[in-house]
Amino acid sequence: MVKNLQDTTTLHNGVKMPWFGIGVFKVEEGPELVHAVRAAIKNGYRSIDTAAIYGNEEGVGQGIREGIQEAGITREDLFVTSKVWNADLGYESTIQAYEISLKKLGLDYLDLYLIHWPVEGKYKEAWRALETLYKAGKIKAIGVSNFQTHHLEELMKDAEIKPMVNQVEYHPRLTQKKVQTFCQEHGIQLEAWSPLMQGQLLNNEVLAEIATKYNKSVAQVILRWDLQNGVVTIPKSTKEHRIIENANVFDFELTKEDMERIDDLNQNHRVGPDPDNFDF
User: Fold this and answer.
1) How confident is the model over 16-63, as pLDDT tens digits?
2) According to CATH, what is the number of the domain 8-199+231-238?
3) What is the C-alpha separation between 226 and 221, in angstroms, rounded?
4) Is 123 a residue of the active site?
């Protein structure tokens, strides 16, 4: 059982990744972003997830520097993730995109670098670039995002190194059982983006009933469900009180019956694009 905010899962290459982190999808550059990252670090978060396409890596970097100083920790205590965007997929362009992200973040290395989407005909070259960067010691771990089972199978046909992480849309309306089973069988850590379905689940009656039983919020119940399913989770928030509340999920455990009730909410419903039909 995951016991606290600093608890980690060990990736198949031995790197330790926090089970819980903060995401900054669609948070614009500016004081709000810097404050959110600082607040997360101050309140015990050790994982920060961004991406080139979010357009906020500089602010994230500033928040990291200020947060480290405020919390009295070191860069090595953090786990920082970014992602290469579709337009940059390709061997040389992926390496260049990585260097640009690193410069914007003001960091010497990334803990995890992901291919953001499985663009057909491009992701294998991008993966080769990630392998090169990884072998050169510039990234602690490499992985993918939004890859379905068939994408992973195709990638692994030619890959020297299999992905350490697959970050996918994952919430009670989209449980991705097939992808999760495949990842478990191959030692790939599943990670959830949009775990709260962009707020669309917060008024769900079943979840509200379960939340009342545990004296928790619906958000806390969903995030606890993620963890008990062995899925790393990175809820997004810019409000400090919400950042604190989201992480208050280590003092209770959902029963098997409640886990199954949440599983039964699945409708294979996405709030984000379908990886097989994304108009890039």
Assistant:
1) 999 999 999 988 889 999 999 999 999 999 999 999 999 999 999 999
2) 3.20.20.100
3) 9
4) no
